[in-house]
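User: Can you write out an input/output pair for a complex, sequences first and structure second?

Assistant: Here is one pair. Inputs:
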Amino acid sequence: MNLHAVRAIYLFEMHRWVRTIVQSVAAPVITTSLYFIVFGAAIGSRMPEINGVSYGAFIVPGLLMLSILTESISNGSFGIYMPKFAGTIYEVLSAPISAGEVVLGYVGAAASKSFVLGLVILATARIFVPYEINHPFVMLAFLVLTSVTFSLFGFLTGIWADGWEKLSIIPTLVITPLTFLGGSFYSIDMLPGVWKTIALFNPVVYLVSGFRWSFYGVSDVSVGVSLAATLGFLAVCLAAVTWIFRTGWRLKT
Amino acid sequence: MESIISIQGLAKTYAGGFQALKGVDLEIRKGEIFALLGPNGAGKTTLIGIVCGLVRMTGGRVIADGHDIQKDYRAARMKIGLVPQEISTDAFEKVWDTVKFSRGLFGRAPNDAHLEKVLKDLSLWDKRGEKIMALSGGMKRRVMIAKALSHEPSILFLDEPTAGVDVELRRDMWDMVRGLREQGVTIILTTHYIEEAEEMADRIGVISNGELILVEDKDVLMRKLGKKQLTLQLQEPLTAIPAGLEAYPLELAAEGAELVYTFDAQAETTGIAELMKRLAERGVDFKDLHTQESSLEDIFVSLVRARA
């Protein structure tokens, strides 16, 4: 195993993150804080409790998930898209490094960033909204799993994208709507009849629900199903990335 | 001589059906500077791309320093450094960080002393703390060379190293390449400047339409190139070479109206004066004369044209 290479890619990516800290950390933290202030502290105080949890606290896991998903995809995709765009990918392709090591370096860095960002947002939320975490280890496990899975998904979109537009399509046109409709701000039990069934086809519902369970012990779907769905998506992404490196799709001619 | 890269039957057909390489066989000798010449689209970059791992071969086999580039790609690639034709760098990174990254990427433990030497050799040491975007085009190209040398490769590929480079930097580049050869690095460079191949290479390969049409020691080629021809347009056509001149490499052309003398331009005496005297003694008169020198360029163009 070429550990020097994994380390080089990982540090390169983390270095880029630190260099752009305003954009990569401050921006998402401020955006999420605005949600906490408006929906949590201001509007939340006039909303009834959901499943025995105050509205302000109820939205914390969902909002955190929204940031993690968006940032993971953006970090994961940008990390590999940038070398493709700038042409510096030649170096990675000509290096004595396996596909698995490339993924470990890029996706490992993207997931690390998301994980740290998640913790920062969690700490920031505490300033505006009181919340509790009933199952901290499950919460951390979900945080890690989601960061890794969606950084990998982002990595795939970064390989797929052949222009800046495509790069932003997935986060803005797919992930953000799915997260807003995935029960970040409400329990899907509150949806009328058929919409509740439709919501169950939204994969983000399982993520948010499982994550919320780790906080308050209440969920829309069982935590086991949530975990299985997330792991399933991880498996799909792993299979896709394996196929890509085997065939050289969009990387080698 | 021991070969460091062995290419056998290398073929590449792109997805669109374009045959970029049609079964190339080539041995690169250890420690030499090998120049690969060819017109645009001949297959030079594809060949380099395959050996370095950027392009997938559709047929054949490549052994680099004893390692199959597919089966044993890690060992093979650790031995190879690549400077591609296009300048592509991480604009926001500092020079020092980027060479450190390259060394790690190629599986080497950190070695600041080596990186320092590489940067100093390329006159980049003073620029080590600068962002790459702040450097001039020539400096950026040096950064790419520094990156390629960061992991101490024994084989270095330079794809069009002096394309769009000013005369002074080109000279520097040549000196640097010679310096590397002295350190034992084998260098394969592609170029379409014939002057560059003449100046630098130990051996020259000419590639055209995906086929390697000539591989020759430069000196041998230069000797061929060193041939000059003197053509005399005779007053009276001859039917045969005059008696007593059989020892001269003479030929009749244009149905006896021209007498062609081929000689070595680099020899101390060309023999022209002696030939003229002897022709005069035999009453062979001429109305005009001209000399002609075949350059590597002529050879190259005629080779390529013949195959096209």
